Amino acid sequence: MLMVMTSSGMRSIFIVVSMTLITLKESMACSLPYVGREIWDAKPAKDVQTFPGPIPFVIIHHSYIPAACNTGKECSKAMQVMQEMHQQERGWNDIGYSFAVGGDGRVYEGRGFNVIGAHAPRYNNKSVGICMIGDWRFDLPSEKMIDAVQSLIEYGVRNNIIASNYTLIGHRQTRPTECPGDRLFEEIKTWPHFVDMWDVVDPNTIAT
Ligand SMILES: [Zn+2]
Questions:
Q1: CA 4 from centre of chain
Q2: Which residues form the N-acetylmuramoyl-L-alanine amidase domain (predicted)?
């Protein structure tokens, strides 16, 4: 009898917690289509280190590999593949990016806001790293992918997580890389807050 009551009590607590999480997710979902880590079945981060906001930089990437994904199932798989590559092969704490955007037009949670990333040396503790899943050297991401990135940035600014005077750049402006792909890079030059600044350093010569 005691076990039954305990079990029932625990179930009640579980339901309350679940509903609170759903409420939070729904409040975020009002402004952008969002896929939390538990939805894409993320592995736990090995370590989480935070930095204070508001965040001054937004840095745009492409994944190159994995290729563009079109459904929730494909994009969740792409997230898992990237996390596995970053955690296992590169030995990082977690998937390198703060967020990724899929061809399904949804924002996938990576490390999240205000967590030190592994996507742009010297900028990991002062930026939001957004990966547009796919190879964007020759092709442009779909309008709904671009809209999702803009919605994410707007969400951050509206909630004072991203600085209202943020600077938007591409990965190649911080280190030698073709990322985020020539075609996408031409595109982001037209986005609000893009700054034609070049602060390129060979990451092999610096500590982070
Ligand atoms: Zn990149």
A1: 42
A2: 43-181
Query: For residue 149, what are its two tokens?
Result: 């990135």
Where in the chain are the domains? 55-197
Helix (DSSP H) and strand (DSSP E) numbers for the chain = 4, 6
**Residue in 170, 154, 141, 168 with CA at minimum distance from that of residue 75:** 141
CA 160 to centroid of ligand 1, rounded, Å: 25
Residue 132 contacts residue 151 (beta carbons within 8 Å): no
- CA dist list (Å): 73 to 11, 27, 81, 104, 158: 29, 23, 12, 10, 30
pLDDT digits (tens, 9 = 90+) for 69-121: 999 999 999 999 999 999 999 999 999 999 999 999 999 999 999 999 999 99
Measured CA to CA, the distance from residue 62 to residue 202 in angstroms comes to 19
- What sign results for the dihedral spanned by CA atoms 190, 105, 168, 59? negative
Residue type, 11: R
Taking the whole predicted model, whether its pTM rises above 0.90 is answered as: no
Q: How far is the CA of 62 from the centre of ligand 1 (A)?
A: 6
Q: How far is the CA of 181 from the centre of ligand 1 (A)?
A: 9
Q: What is the distance in A from the centroid of ligand 1 to the CA of 110?
A: 14
CA of 199 to the centre of ligand 1 (A): 14
The 10s digit of each residue's pLDDT in 113-153 is 999 999 999 999 999 999 999 999 999 999 999 999 999 99
